């Protein structure tokens, strides 16, 4: 498979703007900037200092703002989402020792081979049940309900792992060692901390997470050993630029992998709905119960939400119309005389139809007077509020596509999950 372009390769000489500081390179077609001094003109820095600057660059890299990692931090992923994510990560994690073995194969000196062998022995020297591979399988099975033996790896996952292995086997050792050290091992403490935080927010018990804690604890020692291998090549011409390019390539591959996983998470949520649409089969029997199709009496609605705040003039209720719809959600909203609803904005679209009462509808910067029979449309994310103006309650029939947005929008997915867990009510 042809390797996709890694984009422009950054050079240490193109990103050093002052002694000892790495900065992002100038954007293409930008106004002329003062030219950075060539590497030879930069005041001499030790190899250790240059390595530290690479760690600084890693800490502020756009990699950490990938949508999947943001979703982890915000608690937007469910246990089922993590089951998908880590079923794919299983191939990468199971291949990590292969990457180290590939580095060992490239080592030309005995001390280098001994150092890497010691790093490998930290894992394989443990009792079988305490090895990271066993801990990870227990995490998948007991924490996420995933059988590791039945995982089907995506093509993108296989590509990611194959590119990593090819780099470790085929790139010069100075590049391969930097790829593994700076682009993979150096990520572990922060990356796994993000994962642990997200998993805990998804109600995955801490007792299922020893795999992550083991790696976070072992990483400093492993990283120190691997950095010694990286530094052993510091005498080679262009070493700093080689390390930077290797780190960027590893982060690009990993970042693309995360982006693909995030898209797959969203597709997993919507897939059942899309499949039912494509199947062209009615989701109701030949002779459906009339009560599931016809509402002739508002006494059959289900109380869903009530809120009152007299100081702010808010007093309204929402009742659910129990139609068995997949996408459309129908509610009856009642606003007490002289009061309003909350000023809200939603991921879903809303169609309000006035059933009784007089009032005013606010949609962003526009207000309209409404009476029975009027209809008001509220686009997604448009702030809206209803006010009752007459002596009787303003009663609105609202129809939304919340059945879609509760599957497609991260915060709605999380809200629905938490409500169902707490009350048993399925949004």
UniProtKB/TrEMBL annotation:
- Whether Oxidoreductase counts among this entry's keywords is yes
List GO molecular-function terms, semicolon-separated.
oxidoreductase activity
Q: Report the InterPro entries cross-referenced here.
A: Cupin_2 (IPR013096), Haem_Oase-like_multi-hlx (IPR016084), PqqC-like (IPR039068), RmlC-like_jellyroll (IPR014710), RmlC_Cupin_sf (IPR011051)
Q: Give the top-rank taxon of the lineage listed in the UniProt record for this protein.
A: Bacteria
The alphabetized UniProt keywords are: Oxidoreductase
Q: Cite the Gene3D superfamilies for this sequence.
A: Heme oxygenase-like, Jelly Rolls
By what name is this protein known?
Cupin domain protein
Provenance organism? Stigmatella aurantiaca (strain DW4/3-1)
Lineage, broadest ranks: Bacteria, Pseudomonadati, Myxococcota, Myxococcia, Myxococcales
């Amino acid at each position: 498979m042809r390797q996709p372009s890694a984009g422009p390769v950054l050079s240490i000489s193109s990103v050093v703007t002052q002694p000892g500081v790495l900065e992002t390179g100038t954007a293409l077609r930008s106004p002329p900037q003062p030219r950075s001094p060539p590497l030879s003109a930069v005041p001499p820095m030790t190899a250790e200092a240059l390595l530290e600057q690479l760690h600084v660059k890693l800490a502020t890299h756009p990699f950490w703002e990938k949508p999947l990692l943001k979703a982890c931090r915000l608690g937007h992923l469910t246990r089922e989402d993590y089951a998908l994510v880590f079923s794919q990560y299983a191939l990468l994690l199971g291949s990590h020792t292969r990457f180290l073995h590939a580095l060992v194969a490239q080592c030309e000196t005995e001390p280098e081979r001994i150092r890497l062998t010691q790093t490998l022995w930290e894992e394989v020297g443990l009792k079988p049940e305490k090895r990271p591979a066993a801990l990870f399988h227990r995490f998948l099975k007991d924490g996420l309900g995933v059988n590791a033996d039945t995982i089907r790896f995506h093509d993108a996952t296989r590509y990611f792992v194959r590119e990593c292995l090819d780099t470790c086997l085929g790139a010069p050792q100075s590049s391969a060692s930097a790829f593994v050290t700076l682009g993979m091992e150096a990520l572990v403490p922060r990356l796994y901390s993000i994962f642990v935080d997200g998993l805990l927010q998804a109600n995955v018990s801490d007792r299922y997470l020893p795999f992550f804690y083991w790696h976070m604890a072992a990483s400093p020692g492993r990283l120190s050993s691997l950095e010694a291998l990286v530094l052993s090549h510091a005498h080679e011409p262009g070493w700093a630029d080689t390390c930077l390019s290797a780190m960027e390539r590893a982060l690009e591959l990993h970042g693309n992998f995360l982006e693909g996983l995030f898209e797959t998470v969203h597709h997993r949520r919507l897939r059942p709905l899309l499949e039912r649409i494509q199947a062209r089969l009615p989701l109701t029997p030949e002779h459906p119960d009339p009560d599931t199709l016809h509402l002739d009496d508002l006494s059959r609605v289900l109380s869903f939400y009530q809120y009152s705040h007299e100081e702010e003039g808010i007093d309204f209720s929402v009742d659910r119309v129990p139609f068995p719809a997949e996408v459309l959600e129908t509610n009856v909203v009642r606003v007490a005389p002289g009061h309003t609803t909350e000023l809200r904005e939603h991921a879903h679209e809303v169609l309000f139809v006035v059933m009784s009462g007089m009032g005013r509808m606010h949609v962003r910067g526009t207000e309209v007077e409404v009476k029975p029979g009027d209809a008001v449309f509220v686009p997604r994310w448009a702030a809206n509020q209803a006010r009752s103006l007459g002596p009787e309650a303003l009663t609105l029939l609202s129809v939304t596509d919340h059945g879609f947005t509760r599957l497609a929008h991260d915060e709605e997915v999380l809200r629905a999950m938490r409500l169902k867990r707490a009350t048993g009510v399925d949004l």
